[in-house]
Amino acid sequence: MEDNQNCPYDTTFNTVDVVPISIGIASTQDASCSYSDDGAITITVNGGTGNYTSIQWFGGSVIGSGINTGVTGLTNNSLFADSAYYVVVTDDNNCTQELPMPVLASPGDIQISGTTNDILCNGDGNGSISITTSGGNGSLNAAWTTLVPGSGIIPVDEDQTGLSGGTYKVVITDDNGCQDSATYVINEPSAIFSDGTVSNVSCSGLTDGNITLNLSGGTGTLNTTWNGPPGFIDPNTDNLIGIDSGTYQLNITDDNGCNYDTTFLLITPSPIYANGTPTDVSCYGFADGGIDLTTSNGNFPYQWAWTSSNGFTSTNEDVNPLDTGNYFVTISDNLGCTKDTSFTINQADSIDINGTSTNILCNGDINGVINVVVSGGNAPLNWTWSSQIQIFQIPAIMLQIYLV
Question: What does the pLDDT read at residue 396?
């Protein structure tokens, strides 16, 4: 070496060889499950200068761009299988050494595959699930639970039968405690149902009843079959219009062959009953007849409309006084049902008297005779004789004028 005046200067330097940091793999332990972080790697570190100021573990396959796991030291026992890690060691001289770690393995993933058989008819309880399992470590054990309303599972059986509609979950566990799960849905159609609106027959003798259906549930198209009282013919329609009273049986079938049976009853109001007692005119030419009418059944209140060929009208139940003739009444109830009936008021014929007489032959005799023939009136007839002098019963007749 020379200074700025070109004077020479000599010195001596001693160099020390530094042993580089060396990282080795002491042991590895695979993860117990494919998803667990219980894999472990232990390293050995040699060389370098002084103490090792840090031993850091990083996740990633590219050295220098990994994510610090926060683990330091020679052992990391929280490693995932099938994942890349590397270690960075630093000594007192701030020298560093990196080493990629071996990728840990694990038992194969537990595999679950399954098939389901849905329920055809509501309430049958014949759904089923069949599963096939593989992978994992050692034996595989099933544990079933119900996620939403359902029934019929046997928790420890791998395959399930006799299930109702619902969602079911199975958890498969191997000998390492590793688990996988699968969820299966058993579909169950809603129950076939018919909400029927019944309109009863309005009046006795009519056929104006109706049954209107509101069908729901089942699978696909709902087909109806009707049976009814004698004489009824199934119209092959859902709704029945203009039918008589009686019991009607309905069968509903869906596309799966599921059935639903129900019954509807149509009733007819009891017919209006009218019982009348006519009172005839007491004497020929009088107008003192009457009709005492009793109305029952049907639907109270009632209305009466009386007519007759003689011009008589009335809205009373009982009618009087009446002349002879035929009387007609129409009775209406609260539902508009009617009952027609008629009565006759009679009168006796007029009393007719036809008589012959035999005169007295000799003055002073009492051998006159009167023969009378009477017809009409109301039997029995009573006779009362009178003369211009007195009233008496006539065993023999004197000359007089007699009235009977």
Answer: 44
